[in-house]
Design brief:
- This protein is an all-alpha fold.
- It has two domains: 2-85, no CATH class; 92-197, no CATH class.
- It has helices spanning 2-20, 28-45, 47-50, 55-72, 76-83, 88-104, 110-115, 119-122, 146-150, 156-161, 165-168, 173-189.
- Helix 1 (2-20) runs parallel beside helix 4 (55-72) and helix 6 (88-104) runs antiparallel to helix 12.
C-alpha cells in the first residue's frame, strides 16, 4: 500500500505545483476548477482500492489538497461552502457510501449483492433501528484484524445503515451524494468540529452523533 500511495503522490503533487504556478493568470475559482479537473480524477480513480490504507498514508494524499488551499490562502470551509470544493477525506467517504447505495439500488455488479447482502438475509429479526434498506457488513465474521476491518468498506455499512430514511430513499447516486453533501455543508456552517470527517468510520464522527440522531 505504501508503494501505491507513493505512486499516486508522484502524479498529483507535480500537477498541484503546476496549477499553483499559474496563480498570476487565473482567479481562485478557476484554479480550483483546474485542480478538480486534473487532480481529483487521479485521486479518486482507485480510491476504493486504497480506502483501507492506514490513516497515516491517506493523510499524505489529503495533505496535497490542504497545502494547495493554504498556498491560495483559502480555508477548507470557504472552499467547500463557496466553491463546492470538498475536502479529500469527505469526497472519499461519500464516494464509498455512493458505492453502497449503488448496491442498494441494484445498479452494480451482481457480485456486490453477494458481498453485501441484505440484513434480513442474515438475521431473522429486523434491525432495531435505522431505515428500511439495511445491509449486512460481515461484522460477525471479523474475529481477527479488527483494525483493518474498521478501515474497510465493510465497516462503512454501519454508517450507511444509520443514515436518515430520506437520504437512502434517493433514486440516483448523484442525488444521494448531493443529500450527504448538503448535510455536511450545514455542519460546516455551524462550525461543528471535524465536519470534514463526517460519515467517516475511522473517527466515528457520525456514529451516535448529531446527524444520525
Amino acid at each position: 500500500m505504501n508503494t501505491a500511495i507513493d505512486q499516486l503522490l508522484s502524479k498529483i503533487r507535480p500537477k498541484s505545483t503546476v496549477i499553483l504556478r499559474t496563480r498570476g493568470y487565473y482567479s481562485v475559482p478557476e484554479l480550483l476548477n483546474q485542480y478538480k479537473t486534473h487532480v481529483w480524477c487521479l485521486v479518486e480513480l482507485h480510491s476504493g482500492g486504497y480506502f483501507h490504507a492506514a490513516t497515516s498514508l491517506l493523510d499524505k494524499v489529503d495533505q496535497v489538497q490542504r497545502s494547495f488551499l493554504n498556498k491560495l490562502e483559502v480555508s477548507e470551509s470557504t472552499a467547500f461552502l463557496d466553491f463546492n470544493f470538498a475536502p479529500t477525506p469527505l469526497r472519499r467517504t461519500i464516494g464509498i457510501l455512493g458505492l453502497l447505495h449503488k448496491r442498494v439500488l441494484g445498479q452494480c455488479h451482481c457480485s456486490f449483492e453477494k458481498l453485501l447482502p441484505w440484513y434480513s438475509q442474515r438475521f431473522d429479526t429486523p434491525r432495531g433501528s435505522g431505515h428500511d434498506k439495511q445491509l449486512y457488513g460481515h461484522w460477525l465474521e471479523a474475529s481477527q484484524h479488527r483494525a483493518l476491518y474498521g478501515r474497510s468498506i465493510f465497516s462503512m455499512v454501519d454508517i450507511y445503515n444509520n443514515l436518515p430514511q430520506s437520504v437512502v430513499d434517493a433514486k440516483s447516486i448523484s442525488s444521494f451524494q448531493h443529500l450527504l453533501t448538503d448535510i455536511v455543508k450545514e455542519r460546516c456552517r455551524q462550525q461543528i468540529p471535524q465536519w470534514e470527517f463526517s460519515f467517516c468510520r475511522r473517527t466515528r464522527t457520525d456514529v451516535n452523533g448529531p446527524i444520525i440522531d
